[in-house]
């Protein structure tokens, strides 16, 4: 199985990647290259839509963690949504789930983003806690 990556830039700071198929040692390089290119272009928020991701291996987890680390260093954020049960289980096994921003769907993520923006407008603070 292959990995289909569909990317779209929401705004000057945000890029979404919809993943379909398998994220493994053969396909992780392609995703990493696309994400790194977006970071070079000034992206600060990366959204991974995992609704069609069927399988992930340690190579895929590595790309996710590399992305999270790169974004954190620049004050950015990685968000994942529509995580399938088998993918969620992998992140639970490697004990990374509590450290990642994971949303059930776009509506939940949008609600979170609106709250952050309102907080910044009201008092200038940024607290990413949900």
Can you walk through the features of this model?
Strands 1-2-3-4-5 form a five-stranded mixed beta sheet. The chain has four helices and five strands, in the order E-E-H-E-H-E-H-E-H. It has one domain (3-105): STAS domain (Transcription Regulator spoIIAA, 2-Layer Sandwich), CATH 3.30.750. Helix 2 links the parallel strand 3 (45-56) and strand 4 (77-81). The protein has helices spanning 28-40, 58-73, 85-93, 106-123, and strands spanning 3-11, 14-23, 45-56, 77-81, 101-103. The termini are far apart.
Question: What keyword list fits this structure?
Answer:
single chain; about 130 residues; alpha/beta; Transcription Regulator spoIIAA; 5-stranded mixed sheet; 4 helices
Strand order of the largest sheet: 1-2-3-4-5
What separation lies between the terminal Cα atoms? 36 Å
How many domain units? 1
What's the CATH H-level superfamily name?
Answer: STAS domain
Label the overall shape.
Answer: globular
Into which percentage range does the β-strand content fall?
A: 25-35%
Q: How many helices does DSSP assign? A: 4
Q: Mean pLDDT, as a whole number?
A: 85
Largest sheet: 5 strands, mixed
Into which percent range does the helicity of residues fall? Answer: 40-55%
CATH architecture, please? 2-Layer Sandwich
Structural Rg: 14 Å
Element-by-element helix/strand order: EEHEHEHEH
Which ranges are low-confidence, i.e. pLDDT below 50, for 5 or more consecutive residues?
Answer: none
CATH topology: Transcription Regulator spoIIAA
Number of extended strands:
5
Category from helices, strands and their pairing: alpha/beta
Query: What is the level 1 CATH name?
Result: Alpha Beta
